[in-house]
Amino acid sequence: MQTLMDEKVRPALSAREVEVLLAWIVRDSKDDVARSLYISPATVGTHIARVRDKYEAVGRSAKSKAALVARALQDGYITLDEL
């Protein structure tokens, strides 16, 4: 019987979701991310919520910022050099 760890399920994140996720990881606040990407803080929140929902949908919950960093690293969406 295979588990999720044996067959790591990678959610399909859009390029924009990855861009916003990385910006949010390396900045202190959603307001800083919003200013840097010329979007509203609410839009930043929407992208992060969608990323979390996609991880939840594949059974790999990421409820904290640290968990999202770990998941994104595991799945190759970001690298240590980008952090």
Key attributes of the depicted protein:
WH-like_DNA-bd_sf, mainly alpha, Sig_transdc_resp-reg_C-effctor, Tscrpt_reg_LuxR_C, 83 residues, 4 helices, Arc Repressor Mutant, subunit A, globular
Can you tell me about this structure?
The chain has a single domain, classed as Arc Repressor Mutant, subunit A, CATH 1.10.10. Helix content is 57%, strand content 0%. It contains four helices and no strands. It has helices at residues 15-26, 30-37, 41-57, 65-74. The termini are far apart.
Give a quick summary of the entry.
With 83 residues, the protein is mainly alpha-helical. It is built from four helices and no strands.
Total helix count?
A: 4
The description of the largest β-sheet is:
none
CATH topology: Arc Repressor Mutant, subunit A
Give the tally of β-strands: 0
Roughly how many Å is the radius of gyration?
Answer: 13 Å
CATH architecture, by name, is Orthogonal Bundle
Instruction: Give the termini separation.
Output: 36 Å
Topology of this protein?
Elements: H1 15-26, H2 30-37, H3 41-57, H4 65-74
